[in-house]
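Hey all, sorry for the wall of text incoming. These are the two entities for the joint prediction.
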Amino acid sequence: MKVGLFIPCYVDQFYPGAAIACLQLLEKLGVDVVYPKNQTCCGQPMANSGFEHLTGGCNDLFIKNFSEFDYVVGPSGSCVLHLKEHLHNNDNPEIATTLSNKLYEFTSFLTDVLKVKSLPARFPHKVGVHQSCHGQRGLHLSQMTELVAPEFSKPGSLLNMVKDIELVHLNRKDECCGFGGTFCVAEEAVSSKMGKDRVEDHLHNGAEYITGVDMSCLMHMEGILHRQGSKVKVLHIAEILNGE
Amino acid sequence: MSEIQNTTNHADLAEVFNNDEARVDWHDETLWWIRSKRDVAVNKISNWEVLRETASQIKHNVLSNLNNYLQQFEGNAIANGIIVHWAADATEHNQIVLSILRKHSIGQMVKSKSMLTEECHLNDFLEVNGINVIDSDLGERIVQLAKEMPSHIVLPCIHKKKEEIGELFHQHLGTPAGNADPQFLTETARQHLRDTFLTRRAALTGVNFAIAETGEFVVCTNEGNADMGAHLADVHIASMGIEKIIPERKHLGVFLRLLTRSATGQPITTYSSHFKRPNKGKEMHIIIVDNGRSIQLGREDFRNSLKCIRCGACMNTCPVYRRSGGHSYHNAISGPIGSILAPNLDMEKYADLPFASTLCGSCTNVCPVKIDIHQQLYKWRQVIVKNGYVPAAKTASMKIMDWTLSSPTAYHTAGKAGRLVLKYAPFMVNNKLNPWYKHRDMPEPPKESFGEWYKKNRK
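and here's what came out:
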């Protein structure tokens, strides 16, 4: 099995630690994983701003970089969802469909393809789990509180394999953090208020770390934590699962 | 009420709302409490998701055969003795109401909840034409006294604190200053409205469901105000959008089970009243209104928005609505559903609304008729951009972004430059001109990107 590692642009530029953790954990799990060096961005920032018609270049580049792999794995529910919903190629529609079908968000690749049952990780801390909306409601990584349906959580099941971790209860289990791509600057007032409220829920319930499947939400909450002078840190879930 | 705040956009209005953080917290908590009540109620129905799907499919059938159902409804309503009118738009609707009132020389009317008449700005129109209208829904009456638009389709005055309502009642209804006791204020409104009900010869109600099979319509209220108005008046006018049709009476059970559980967490509305024929010597009118709905029906991507039964669940769950208030949407229908309905009416004026969302998807999940609200928000963004209703600067920056991200070389150069700026000149980005920085710090730039690390450490 040959896996292409898809690292979203802002993770590549700002959070290399999250990407390294993904790579190392996949290698530990015996996966033959390669990072195609010419990748850039999935095109979501433009598409969510109403400029999906400008994402042709990103689509072509993604197809060029990743078509050869058996699976493509990326540590971001949001970017993966965008590609699954919108990756297309007018000249060869099938190539895009085939590729998006073998595209996986990192935790679901571990639970659904690798069927990981145990991990050698240890993380003796109180951790709050942020349910990133696109991973949760878009890719169904975990059950949503709005629905009358059985509980499950793919990221949660992996975190439960980590020794000595304590997951904190949140008052609002799956409320959005307010990042929303360009929303965070276009609607600055509401966005930052949403972020403050989300962070407060974690702090109030004693989290020492906030984790999740999407670095963008975590970057947003980190920006607020820093501003408040908080010692609470954000970590991508891969960094916890790859611990010790 | 008159159109308010139509010169500005959601982000600006939301910023003003957020100047009072304690109020934002109160507004958010109040609506979250209603969302929580909704969760408790729906979890008591084990086949809730089947019920939603059933309702969605019934409405799908309705929208696919709307012309036939409307004609069937009209035929049966006329046979029942109801006078049926058709209105292509808001102007026609308002003219029809006025002509009915003029025919009977009526100068005063009582009106129960009808978002359609808000959409048509009926009250303003009638006022200009010398007709006095009193809204009989308590929340509607409160915003009417305050000269505001409803901020929520089910809870029109949810943005007002009880102290503010006490002050309004003191000014308009003569209650003692400083009295904000909800029970006392409600009793005052009751007495005030009782007089209105007894003296009005015309009553206008909305329509929640119009049944094609029987020609009857159903009006749902918790206060019984629609019934009081309609039963005491000589003339009952009911205004309905063309999408309010359901095929058969048996389908009503599906919608009544969904409506209030989604709206407030109640099992059913206190009053779900069926109106089928006028009482002896009285008149009953139905005005069937299009006002842009058939255009929306023709928009394949947005057709499903016409399934809406106006429960307001998408507003209660929306993290943006809860923190920006209903008036920030500057439209009769606010929140996520308003944001996908409004651009159909005026794409330029409401170009901002589809962007007033993080696309978190919670609205779609609570919707009792399974409208794909957040997907439609995304699709409206594309339509609005293609029609040129975005600032030129945004288009320019998107083109630069496209150019950078389509080329690995440009991307690597720009990424490196960006990190260098963050590292050595944080004041360049950590300043007030950068909206991110107002309440959030920028990420600390790492010394190398993952790509650079990978090159050194693998192969």
